[in-house]
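Could someone model adenosine monophosphate with this protein?
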Amino acid sequence: MADDVFSRIVKGEIPAKKVYENDKVLSFVDIAPVNKGHVLVIPKKKYETITDMPEELAGELFRAVHKVAKAVVKATNAEGYNILVNNKRASGQEVPYVHAHIIPRFADDGFRFGWRTLKYEENEIDDFQKKIRSFL
Ligand code: AMP
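Reply:
Sure, complex below.
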């Protein structure tokens, strides 16, 4: 099966506008940004989702996200920023290689996530609390 685009970037087969790298992670500018200065941070070793990664590597990824986000905010004079990871197609993930988006945001940038909210039936929230806790 052909490599996905981020595997090819890690291998150096296609170019990327790199902003940061260390032995474990790589960060580069997203070519189709929500706002200019939108960057991605990926592990150099391929995993599809955050929970596929060893916990320690997920920590390394977010250590880099923390570092790069500060630089993105300074470079763009952003008034805010979103940090987002889509995991699997159902969540909107298009490239099946885990990546954290760092999106600089501005009060008047005109972009809004299509967020909706649901209501729990009586006691349902407790059921979810219990069920999630049982897996931890
Ligand atoms: P997602 O929907 O979370 O899988 O996001 C994939 C992201 O990868 C999108 O924001 C794309 O613009 C970005 N992208 C795809 N190909 C490239 C590339 N060659 N260089 C940089 N960013 C890319």
